Structure formats: C-alpha cells, structure tokens
Amino acid sequence: MKDEILRVANVFKVYKMDGVTFTALDGVSLDVAAGEYVAITGPSGSGKSTLMHIIGCLDRPTSGSVEVNGKDISHASDRELARIRNTAIGFVFQQFNLLRRTSAVANVELPLIYRGIGTGQRREKAKELLVSVGLGEKLHNLPSQLSGGEQQRVAIARALVTDPQILLADEPTGNLDSKSGAEILSLFDSLHNSGRTIVVVTHEADVARHARRVIRIADGRIIEDKKVKRS
Amino acid sequence: MNTFEYIRLALRALRTNNIRSILTMLGIIIGVASVILLVSIGSGLQAFVTSQFSSLGSNKIFVFPGETDLKRIGGRPFTPVSKFELGDVGDILRSSDAISEVTPVTVQTGTVSFRGEVASVDVVGAWENYFGIANWVTQRGSIITQNDVERTRKVIVLGSKPAVELFGDTDPIGKTVAIGDIRYQVKGVLVSKGGGGALGNDIDKRVIIPLTTALRQYNQSRPSMLLVEARSQDTVEQAENDVRRTLLKRLKEDDFTILQQKELLSTITQFISVITVALGGIAAISLLVGGIGIMNIMLVSVTERTREIGLRKSVGATGRDILVQFLIESVILSLAGGIIGILLGGAGSLALRAFIQTEVTIWSVLLASGFSALIGIIFGVAPAIRASRLDPIEALRYE
Q: Which of B17, B150, B277, B318 is the most buried (most CB within 10 A)?
C-alpha cells in the first residue's frame, strides 16, 4: 500500500481572455506517494507551470479534483489554501525570492511567522535548517552577501522549515551556474534519501535525470509517466 | 499571527526605507504640530482674557455708550459718542441699595514718552475710587487722590508695562513723562495683573491720570464709560436694572449698553473660540495633505514589494495577513508622525511663551493623535486592500 500524498484527478484549467478560451491543462491525472522524487518536464507553454501552481495550492483547477495530504483543495477558500501552502507545501523558486535586506536566518523564519510560532522557537528551527543545508556560518548574511547557490540553499531551508509534505521546486537551477546547480541537485538527492517527497518542475534534462520518476507534459496533457532506476 | 508580530514586521519594513518613512511622516508632523500650536495660542489667549477679566471681579457692571453688540464680530464697542454726564454717577449711586460704587472713566489710546523712550498705552482718566473698583494696587508710590482729581493735577500712575519700557530698572516716582506735549509727574506704578500677552488688549499697558485732567487733555466733557460695582455678586442683576432705570430717565434705550463682567467675558471668549477652531481647522487641512502623502507612498510601496507579497502568500500568508501588515505600516507612519508633531507643537508653544501666553490643551492633543491614527487607517486602507488582493502567481512573476 502506497501512502499517496498528492492526488490529481482529471484536472482541467481553462483561461478565458477577451472571449478566447485557452486550455492550459486538459485532463491531467497523477498521484504522488510519500518519498517520491518526481520531475515534471515539458516545453514552455506545455502547462507544467499551471500544474505546479495547482499542486502548490496557488491556484484552483477549473474542474477535476486535487487532494493534498488527503484534503481536497479544488473548492477550498483562499484562507484554507494559504493554510495548506503554509503547512503542506514548501516552495523553491527559480529566482530564489528571498527578502532583500533581511538576513538568511530571518528569511528562513518567514513561513513560521504565519504559523504563529514564537520568536525563539522560530530562530532555533531556522538555524537548524540553515546548518543542515551547509550555511551554518552565514546565518546573518544578507542575500546580497551570498552567492546564487547559497541563496538557493537559503530558499530550500525556508521551504523545509515548516516540515512540509511536499517540496515543490520550479526550475531550481535555472538561475545558477552548473557547479552551483549540481550542488543544489545533490542536496535534493540527499533530501530524497532522507525520505522527502520532492516535485521538481523543469525543462532541463540534467535536472530531470536526478528524479526517480519523470512526467512529460505537452499541450496540457501527460504524454509520458515513467519511473527511472538510477545507477 | 499576533499583533506584536505585525508591528515588528511593519517596523522592519519602515526601517528599510528610513528616509522615505521620515519624509512621509513629515506631512503628518507638520499638520499635527500646527494644529497643536495654533490651538494652544487660541487657548492661551482665552485663558489670558479670562484671567484679566476675573481680576476685575464678577460683581462689576460696564456701561458703554451707544447700542453695542459685542456678538457682532468686528463691532467697535467704544466708538459711539458718549452721552454720559458726570452727574449720572451720583444719580446712579443714589438710586440703588444694590450698588456700592460708581466711577466714570475715559479711555484713549496714546503714547507716553520719557527722554526719547516711547510707550504706547491706554490712557485712562479716572477718579480715585477707580483703583478700588478695578482692583488696581500700586507697587510703588501712591494712587491718584480726590485732591488730584479736584485740582486737575498733572499726575500719572504708570502700569507695570510702560513703567518698565520707559524706566527700566530706575525708579520712576517723581520723574516727569509726557503725553502729547503735556507733562505729568509720575506718582505711582501699578502691580502687574499678569498674563504677559502681546495679543489683544493688555491691561498692564495702561497709564491712569485724573479724570478731570484727561477730559482737559483730550478736550472732552463726558466720560467714555461708567464702571459700576454691585455690593455683592447676588445683587448684580438688581444693580444692572437700577442703572438702566436711572439712565433711562435722561437717555434713550440705544444711548447706552449695560454689560455684566461675565457677559462681556463670555462674548469675548466665544469670539476667541471661533477663531481658535477656524485656525485649528485650517491646520487640519495640512493633516489631510499629509494623509494623502501616506497613501501615495503606501501605493508605491505595494507596487515595489509585489514580489515580496507574492512570496509571503506562497509561504502561507493570508490576504488578511497582508492587509493588516500594510495597514499597520501606514498607521505607524501617521501615529509616529502624530506623536512627533505633538511634541514639536508642544515645544513650539513653550517657546512662544516668551512672547504670548499659550496653553496646550488635552483635547487638542487627544484630537490630534486620534485624527492622525484615523488618517493612517483611512489612507492606508486602499493600498492595503490592493496588496491583499494581489494574485500570488502574478505577484511572483512581477519584475
């Protein structure tokens, strides 16, 4: 029996703009079990970003159902979505999206603020996470004092600080040189080995190669979903 | 998320944009400071006038010539031609048990000079009993006597202000001063009734000469007003009626106006209140402008921080969290501006005390702080709502 953490069933996403309808997702279904490392790939415009937004509870499907951690989010209120984002999802963005003029450790604390956790406990947890991504020496550096790879590691620490069920990464190496990119990917590998569920959205084959399951999307449909064994 | 957390968040955001925050606050600071300052001047003026009138005592009745309507702003109560005669004094006194004293007075504006020093004053021509009725006591020398009045002596009692202006530290008693080209010998110097105002009629800026001398000096035959003292506060009404009855035997209704001290005071303070509120209102407009400044800067801030808002939402901030965050920022801006403004206005009003009497009232402080908090909310709501409604996906894409 697999422990399904994410269930996407027959999801459609249709945008209407100036009377023109555009179908971004055209009946997508997929399940992700706890501990899986999934890569969603596809050319730009394929609908993979839309799928990621829906999985990440930033958006609702037009039809179909999405269950995160057993909760159906297709009809959830904005408030409920925010709550799920805060507890079940950890985001990693291509642009890192760290707050400028805010120290690494304060950036990592951010999600815990919205969970109502007190200052001391917050800082403790944030430090712990930064140490675990290898930034124990740079807790109080500002983003501008960190390299791109380091900034992305701060972002990963921020995503993990709430201990989410799913780590959701959108082109996590897209803004990094190949060496820093490789470091991030090996960090993902070790997170996977310690049991994290990871979903990476990428168009880079190198990145997808790290995952144990690759889902290809084109024109809003899944065209391939295969498990890969790593040597 | 608790309130304390929101406030910390807001303070951090405001600190990051130090100069901008201060400049934005400046609008509120100036508005609040000017409200506090102008209202303190008005209140001070009111307190000053009240203290000057109360020093007369509440059993006094003023009889002015003509039909004087003090409620008509800009009305000049002293210009109508006087029809009083010195004989009225005795008639009034004899007519009533309620009246203890009556004294005729002339008042002219003029200047007093001594060896090139000139002081502008009210020249009061009075009988010897004027000093008792109007509560004037000398600090040096003596008051004008019945003898001085009967003999039309050229003697003068200086108010405390002209005494200092003309003589400084030296003793003026026995010195000769001039009103116009007529010379007077200084007999006494009055004790100050205080207040120290440069606004309005300062009663310390006066000199008193015998009524007879004053009438001759100004080539007049009639006193310009009568000052009546009732035996007690309880007989003031009766005294007023008796004065009216006596004067009507000889004069017409519109030849004179009788005002009790408290009526005179209340009309004047009413007038000052109107001015105070008007001044405060004008200053409040600048508060409004300050509020618009806050709204402007908050809108800029929301746009600038679109990505930050998107990120906060993606890690679990609700629309309400964002709304409150921005609202608290604007409230802190305006409230801090308000507090600084109150301090500045208060300091300014203290500094002004060197020249005029000022009084920072509790209600103006409460009003200013309440108003500035309100402005923070009113002008912060629109930007905060805009921030809270941003779509996180769009916001994260924003460059």
A: B318
